[in-house]
Amino acid sequence: MGSPTCCQFQGPRHPTARPCPAPEGPWGHIQGRDRGLTSHSVPALTQFRMAGQAPEPSSCDCFVALPPHTASPAVIFGKNADRPRHEVQEIVYVPAATHRPGDKVQCTYLEIEQAERTHAVVLSRPAWLWGAEMGANDCGVCVGNEGVWTREPLGEAEALLGMDLVRLGLERGGSAREALEVITALLERYGQGGSCKEEPVPFVYHNTFLLADRTEAWVLETAGRYWAAQRIREGSRNISNQLSIGSDIAAEHPGLRERARSRGWWSGDGEFVFAEVFSLEKQPPRMEAAKARFQAGKELLRQHAGHITAETLMSILRDKESGICVDTEGFRTAGSMVSVLPRDPALPCVHFFTATPDPSRSVFKPFVFVAGIKPVPQVRSPTFLQDPAKQIPRFQSSVDRRHELYRRHQAALELMEQDQERGQKLLETLQELEKQGLEGMKELLEGTVTPCPEELADLFFDCVEAEMKFYT
């Protein structure tokens, strides 16, 4: 595996590099120092939408686009985390670390052996658990997961959550392939199970994963401790709460086919199609609803093939008509992420997070791995000495996990509902703030600006601060 800091962007690399831009330059705009924002129109792909009705919720949608489907030589990753409506998603940065032999790590439910070294990671996670819905590491690896139900029985006993496996893969994998190997090894050893929501009634599922780095992507689908993986070298791919790997299997559990044959799901003759063999004959409503979302997401990617950018994926994640952006009474999109992973290793990877629900009314804010990342307490949830998620029996009471940005954004959403005119003006202001951040990151990726590492270390903090100013 690579060094824990293998792909951190180091900023200027030669003595003639440009110094930090002055506060009134383009980076000053990103950091909110220029309060003279205007409501310039943006392309239709990046339009924010007012609240509307969506189909019955399923769960998450995850996307990846690679050349030649991308507009630039980069891999672009995106995910919506659809969760119980009042669950809070926080953004957590964990620096790289070296650990002592015999060290353990406490995941959401299980304690397991710690790796010798862990990569720096940035995570978007439900605030009550250890793992993550989605995230990235300092080697340019991104991982997101989704729930599925398969022919293998669900394990209600506490084991590793799929969200724990997301974080473990990011902390221990220096490439998408390495992260996949980490996840599958831990899955085979410890299994997956335990409740996936902060409520007394268990909500249990198996998991699929989308993993990406600068060169390729992998779809990993699981059924209990069994799994299959598909390698994606070009084009685009999406996953949506259903098994989708056919016969194009690049890696698999060594006992996968024998398991299917012994259970009578596959004769042992002819083509082995993973999704057909391991999918339930009668799909639960969530997976039935996911079929339409999967096709809609696939079609949206097809429509923009050859021209896909970060803005394209942000637009797809905001699409309520397809159900990809969920806003219903029970479930909603709790957080969203889009990452740009340039093929050129000299360029930094840029990761955008909302840290707030409903991407159609949220701001994607950029994060870049550098040394000395400034803490962002505004997107960290409070901690509790008597945390009901950690006490046995679990989830017998509830606590208020809202972080400061969530609280202010929540008040802004109420304003949008109550006062359409003022709400629209606020949306236009947020559009402009996001647009400036996207333009600044485009300049960074094109090499037309060279900010100093200190400025990049403050970038996500400054963007969060700028957004919060408009909610006061």
Describe the structure.
It is a single chain. The protein has 472 residues and is an alpha+beta fold. The chain has helices at 26-30, 162-172, 176-190, 256-262, 274-278, 285-303, 310-317, 404-418, 420-446, 453-457, 459-469, and strands spanning 61-65, 74-84, 89-94, 97-98, 104-106, 111-113, 117-118, 121-126, 134-137, 142-148, 206-212, 217-223, 226-232, 236-239, 251-252, 331-342, 350-353, 365-367. It has an eight-stranded antiparallel β-sheet with strand order 3-8-9-10-11-12-13-15, with helices on one face. β8 and β9 form a beta hairpin. α2 (162-172) crosses α3 and α8 (404-418) crosses α9 (420-446). The longest helix has 27 residues, at 420-446. The radius of gyration is 21 Å and the shape is globular. The N and C termini lie far apart (46 Å).
Please describe the structure with a list of short key phrases separated by commas or semicolons.
single chain; 472 residues; alpha+beta; eight-stranded antiparallel β-sheet; six-stranded antiparallel β-sheet; 11 helices; 27% helix; 20% strand
How would you summarize this macromolecular structure in one to three sentences?
The chain is built from eleven helices and 18 strands.
SSE class: alpha+beta
Low-confidence stretches: 1-5, 10-57
Distance between the termini: 46 Å
Percent helix range = 25-40%
Shape: globular
% residues in beta strands: 15-25%
Largest sheet: 8 strands, antiparallel
The order of strands across the largest sheet is 3-8-9-10-11-12-13-15
Q: What's the number of extended β-strand segments?
A: 18
Whole-number mean pLDDT: 89
